[in-house]
Sequence to fold (323 residues):
Amino acid sequence: MAKAIRLSERGGPEVLRWEEVELGTPAAGEALVRHTAIGVNFADVYLRTGLYPQPLPSGIGSEAAGVVEAVGRKVRGVKPGDRVVYSVPFPGAYAEQRLLPADALLKIPSGISDEQAAAVLLKGLTTWFLLRETYKVKRGDVLLIPAAAGGVGLILSQWARSLGAKLIGVVSTEDKARLARRNGCHQVLVGYADLAARVRKLNRGHGVDLVYDGVGKDTLFASLDSLRPRGMMVSFGNASGAAPPFSPLELAKRGSLYFTRTGAADYLSEAAARRTGARALFALIRRKAIRVHIGQRYPLAQAAQAQRDLESRRTLGSTVLIP
Fold:
């Protein structure tokens, strides 16, 4: 038996339940992992509220690091004692231990702690496909990053800067502005009022080449208005709620813009893609091009409070749960 956070109904953080679950032993191709650190992401909130539908009852949580305790038959690549980390598409990480397909697991390189790996993997893999697959960012591109001091924002800023991009971050407080500047943003705007006009003022009267928007509802049109003609907006999150529907004519009115809404599962469902992204991510961390900022830690049993703080924007950087 082990303890886990379980979800039986949709709602606020109060619906998260701390329960005992039965594990059993690893079947063929499976591994039993004892978690040492668990990442907290907005994707977990979306599963709880039903924005991302999932059959109930279920576990919750998108990524975790830990130690392999046992493996089933036909498992190659990992063995008991290995430090490992995993992410999507395997929800249920808010748990002390769990059984997983062994090919979901990625070995954690030396020099990277379990907490760092749990805090960064989903956000880092998301950043990888945003910068290298959705759009190949190149030297000289001018990027706008709303929520630049959030978990994805900090990693996205550092990785994009390593590629030679120029970054304009947007944050809600001066404390977050200082953090964004330390982590890759060349210029930072505080507050979202009149965003497009302020972005153009910073960029010599021009719109930016690309917007990576994880905020959603509150910034949709401000982000579109910040683009140059034929610029591209990549919407990848819903921190303020799901972005509203809009007419394709809105893109034409603003200069024949490009718009895409990404989903991690479409980029990361294959083990080979996760391995490729993780290799690039870990290499950047080991050479200190990306620093993992863990702003807060909570006991696993307090996952509801961690989600409250995330939703209310009281967090900085990444959040981890400790079993």
Remarks:
- Residues 114-134 form the longest helix (21 residues).
- The CA atoms of residues 64 and 141 lie 33 Å apart.
